[in-house]
Design a protein that fits this description.
Length: 205
């Protein structure tokens, strides 16, 4: 079994393998080209992200700068926005759903290293997948740790460190991140009224 196969299977592996270094170099080239683009080069940005990621849906928008290890382990849904300084360490699969917002400096970290110092000196590492559902907003400086699944319709407060799974339809915050309260019908009704008022105001301008 190759080091890449071990990495993809979630087993202990060494990242200083020639095949993995080549994959990482490809990602570095594509992200460097992407980060050098201007606002007038949206079509070129889309071309680069289609090359970089395993899959990326319509209306993906990433504010440079952006960093990732491989890209080819990341699948992104429709209408996803990533603000400045997003980092995706995708030694294991990263799956991002539809209608997802990232605040500035969000980090998705699938990589883990041995607790043993000798294991780290031996360049051993492993990865656990991260899954983010639909309609999720991750506040600025949120860090998502290896093996975490975030459900649908979730808001994660800024500065959170997400170490465990988060269920659907909640607001969660903190280090470690914990559920603060549910997103219930009263919340939905409040924002429906706010939206209605907004459209009424702009109609009268």
């Amino acid at each position: 079994m190759t080091e890449k196969e071990r990495m993809v299977n979630g087993q202990i592996y060494r990242a200083n393998d020639a095949e993995l270094r080549a994959d990482m170099k490809r990602a570095r080239v594509l992200t460097r080209l992407f980060n050098q683009t201007t606002e007038e080069q949206q079509a070129y940005r889309r071309e680069l992200t289609h090359q970089l990621f395993a899959q990326s849906g319509a209306d993906l928008y990433i504010e440079p700068p952006f960093r990732t290890d491989y890209g080819c382990q990341t699948t992104i849904g429709q209408r996803v926005y990533m603000n400045y300084d997003c980092i995706i360490i995708d030694v294991a699969p990263v799956t991002i759903g539809d209608n997802v917002f990232f605040g500035p400096r969000v980090g998705l970290y699938t990589a883990g290293h041995p607790i043993s110092a000798q294991g780290r000196r031996d360049d051993l590492e492993y990865g656990k997948p991260i899954t983010i559902g639909n309609d999720v907003w991750l506040g600025g400086n949120t860090a998502v740790n290896p093996g975490v699944t975030i459900g649908n319709n979730v808001v994660i407060g800024s500065g959170s460190v997400v170490t465990k799974d988060i269920p659907d339809n909640v607001i969660a915050v903190g280090n470690p991140c914990r559920v603060l309260r549910p997103i219930d019908q009263a919340e939905e009704d409040y924002w429906a009224r706010e939206k209605e008022q907004y459209f009424a105001e702009i109609a009268n301008d």
